[in-house]
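User: My collaborator and I are trying to settle a disagreement about how two of our proteins should look. Neither of us wants to argue from intuition anymore, so we agreed to look at predicted structures for both before our next call. Could you fold the first one, then the second, and keep them clearly separated?

Assistant: That sounds like a sensible way to settle it. I'll keep them separate. The first protein:
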Amino acid sequence: MMTALRTPICDLFGVRYPIVQTGMGYVSGPALTAATANAGGLGILASATMSYPELAAAIEQTRSLTPAPFGVNLRADAPDAGRRVDLLISERVRVASFALAPKPELIARLKEAGVVVVPSIGARRHAEKVAAWGADAVVVQGGEGGGHTGQVASTILLPQVVDAVGIPVIAAGGFFDGRGLAAALCYGAAGIAMGTRFLLTADSQVPDSVKRLYLAATVADTVVTDALDGVPQRLLRTPFVDRLVRDGAVARLLRSARSAATFRRLTGSSWPALAREGLAMHRSHDLALGQVLLAANTPALLRAAMIDGRPDYGVMATGQVTGLIEDLPSCAELIDRIVTEAEAVLARLSGGEKP
């Protein structure tokens, strides 16, 4: 491996390569997380869609599948966030990642226990805030990324944040190959984080029928909407999503509620659990009551597509990069390909030859 690919996050996370698999609800389970870790990257379990007992079991299962370090993504606004932090500490999980900025005291608690803290942000001011609070590194997601996302493209946001903070910056949003890793390093990033690219691997547990929809999509087949929970999300365009976007608030609520009710019955989820999810979004994003009800249904709509393979009842978060992905390699094959290509690109730029 070239020296250029040995970046600060390799030592910070205890991994061979500066490649991170992001925490994706109903996607980043033990199998995918462990496969990424075994291939030399940082795999991250997505716990936002797990109960506390499910998270404890997932950590144990992941550890049984890999001896390598891995991370867990937490929701800082979860009612039991403190208890989950205690679990990570007691289980000696290497990395705690956050989609929303954790409070300073939560960061301090994790750092004191030796857990690496890595929030994800979509604006320079947010990066400056978490850096000042003691975060060890930060994931910077440009607007091309999937799920909750901002408006600023990676090529603009990344150099902004690199210049603004003194901690390692990990680039996300639009990355899927070795050229992207090399480009991110040239911008000053310490590595890349990818969601959609890892979702579309043989190690991902997403149903094959859903993977085929992703592979068939073009870069124009995504839509950014706040129809689900009041916060802009990039989703794969489907007839169901188009109807949600087109509907008025009342019709959108009724359609979403009907879908959530169907899959609540199938999965055994409770209405109180869905309500707690919506209220957490309400506190974080100051949503109106009607939007809270929509937010409460979001986990069921995600599960419908990503677990049950029913996109006609659910939604699929995705980055625009889905339109550039054409295959389903294993995580090991993917990471090896990215590393080999990045080495070749950097060698060519430096006037040398591929090692």
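The second protein, kept apart from the first:
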Amino acid sequence: MSDSIFLQSSDPEKQWVVDRLIELVGKDSVIPSFPDVAMQLCSLVQREASTIEDFADVISLDPGLTARCLQAASSVSFAARPIDSIQQALMLIGVQEIRRIALAVATIGAFSEFRAKIDWRRFWLHNVMVARLAEKVASSFRQTSGMEYLAGLLHDIGKLLIEHCFPREFEKIVTETHDRKCGYMVVEREVLGLDHTQIGAALCETSIPMITSCAQLGFIMTR
């Protein structure tokens, strides 16, 4: 992470923030472990040849994820009877939608250990909405791969790390953002020398190597 292209401080006097982030990288309690199932899904979404069976095999490895996918599929399907298998759910709502559900559940689970004092429901609702928008915009220019959706889900992850590791600075950022009626990134750069998009991208780059391209996309989206 010390060589990360994302962690470039705009203020030499705030280099301590970058140094602190580098120090934190080695602590498992700070950097979340992305689930193996999610890692496999990330690989599948990048392969054009992936089939319904491929997704079903991976999702079925996680009982909790399987249950949530079945529940979601049942709520939107037109089936005359309850859905009782991942294969049936996939056939009814399609790989694209089940991919969204699976990635969202896996991503939220990966960062659930961040004990941030925030409205989790609102935070993840915002991220899911951004993920949908990112995918929609990308689809206007080319076929989407799923990484656009994942980038949207992860675009604000840096805020969680700031609150978790720099609580006093986070409170100052929130207060000044509200009082000055400006964007978070402006105040973050003043207080920390870098913003949450840089921190989030570096976090993905370090702890989730398979989706570094997603981190880059999420970083670009919010600049």
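Some points you might bring to the call about the second protein. The domain at 12-32+118-223 is CATH 1.10.3210.10 (Hypothetical protein af1432). The chain has a mean pLDDT of 77.
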